[in-house]
Amino acid sequence: MKEPNESRITPLLPPDWDDEILDALNAFPGGLKFVLSRWEDGGEDARGMHTLGSFAHYPALAKAFLTFNHHVAANSTLTARERELLILRISWLRKSEYEFVQHVILGRRAGLTEEELKRIQAGPDAPGWNAPDADIVRVADDLHNDACIGADTWTRLSTQFGPRQIMDMVFLVGCYDILAMVLKSFKIPLEPGVAPLEPEVLKQMLESPAGKRPDENR
Hints:
It contains eleven helices and no strands. It is an all-alpha fold.
C-alpha cells in the first residue's frame, strides 16, 4: 500500500478541512459523516478519507462532482445491489484497486455474495449469473468498450427496467469511470488499515482484458 506522500496530490486530512471545504464535501453527506466520525474516534482507516482529502484541494469542483456522485450512488432509482454490480465491474475494468476495494465492502453490505464478487471479475459471460444480473454487468462492459449500451443489451434491459433506471445505470458507470481516472491519475492511496487486494487478485485485475462481444449489433 502506498503512503499519502506518494500521491501526486497529497490528500488533506480532516483537521485541515475549513468551512469552505466542509461545505463542498457535504454534497455527499453520508461519506463526509462517516469519515469525520471515524477520524474523531481516532481511526485513520476511514474509507474514502483520501478521496475526499484530494477533492478538498478544489472545493468548487468537489461540490459539483459530489452532488452528482451522491445522486447516482445513494438516491438513484436502482437498488444498492444493482449499483454495486455496476460500480464493481467498471472498477475492475478500469483496474482501479482503490475503487474496487472500497466497493467490495459496500457490495457485501448490499447483499452480494463472495461467489458473485468473484464472478464480477470474470464478467457478464461467467457461469452462474441470472439473466438480469448478467445484463447489468454487461452494461458496464458495453459502456467501457464502446461508450454505448449494445443493441441486444438494451433490448433485454428494456424488458426489466424503465427509462429512468437505465439512465441511472449509464450515469452511474460514467461517474465511477471518472472517479477511477481521478484515483489513478492522482495516485490516491488506500487509507491506513484498509487492506489492499491480495497480490494474486491484483495481478488478475492488472492483466485482465476488457473483452468485446463481436456478436453485438452496436
